[in-house]
Amino acid sequence: MRTVYVNGDYLPETEATVSIFDRGFLMADGVYEVTSVLDGKLIDFEGHAVRLERSLKELDMTAPVTKDELLEIHRELVRVNEIDEGLIYLQITRGAPADRDFAFPDPDTTPSTIVLFTQNKPGLADSQAAKKGMKVISIDDLRWGRRDIKTVQLLYPSMGKMMAKKSDADDAWMVQDGFVTEGTSNNAYIVKGNKIITRALSNDILHGITRAAVLRFAREAQMEVEERNFTIDEAKEADEAFITSASTFVMPVVEIDGIAVGDGTPGRVAPRLREIYLDESRKAAV
Ligand code: PLP
User: Fold this and answer.
1) For residue 141, how far is its CA from the centre of ligand 1 (angstroms)?
2) Which pTM was predicted?
3) Cα–Cα dist 285/183, whole Å
4) Mean pLDDT (whole number) for 123-149
5) What is the pLDDT of residue 52?
């Protein structure tokens, strides 16, 4: 049984509760972060903490804990749950006012709700899926216009995952006005020659913490990076494709809409970037 964190308390998961009036439950009025754990240490914690602050600010929400407290809670959960490899999920909502109302409650009388729990994932780094590569399908991007804020409105991405499953694929890449935005829970990339191509940051995509680190490592390794839009047809004709996220690190994409990317194997660039990312982020883990 896991120990989870809810509003200041460490509790067995079966005893942790949140009000039915919580705005996270009623209105998806909340933000989240997912931080990976390798060797019992937090990967890219600083980046996730900074993005969380930004998400909260964009939604006029107040942080219930400081960054130092947040780090302490993450570490305590890793310790008590004995996580060597896995994930830590964090969610903050606008809290539970006395009644349902579209207007935001007064933060002085309605404190935000904070919940964290661990997910044990042995083999996260040494993943079989990374050796094989994954298959994606393309779908219309029907999400709202502020995808740069990491909100818990994940119904459409969840539907996208199910559409992929039905097509015997692993994930869906979303397409808006002819261009790929991102995967359901990851950033999307293609490789042409030695060039890594990925959509530039804007409100259209989540500003991935893994994306930032991987692009930095790629540039440091003298790889060329181009931040621009690409179409799904360009992706199908690319030499390689891959995704990044805190839970998959760097994961090759070997098939798009049933068409093999390159020779249908993970290729050269994505596996190398995965190795560099895992090495470097392990060294910097806290
Ligand atoms: N894009 C979307 C839509 C996501 O949901 C996520 C992660 O959940 C990402 C990209 C990758 O972000 P990160 O690397 O910070 O995990």
Assistant:
1) 15
2) 0.97
3) 26
4) 97
5) 98
Write down the pLDDT at residue 74.
Answer: 98
Are β-strands 41-42 and 9-12 bridged in parallel, bridged antiparallel, or unpaired? unpaired
> How many Å lie between the centroid of ligand 1 and the Cα of residue 108?
31
First-to-last alpha carbon distance for the chain, in angstroms, is 25
Ligand 1 pocket mutation pick from 245, 248, 251 by most atoms within 8 angstroms of CB: 245
Contact 75, 285 (CB under 8 A): no
Alpha-carbon distance of 282 to 78, in angstroms, equals 16
- Is the minimum distance from the CB of 209 to ligand 1 under 6 angstroms? yes
185 lines ligand 1 (CB under 6 A): yes
From the alpha carbon of 211, which atom of ligand 1 is closest? 14
In contact, 12 and 1? CB cutoff 8 Å = yes
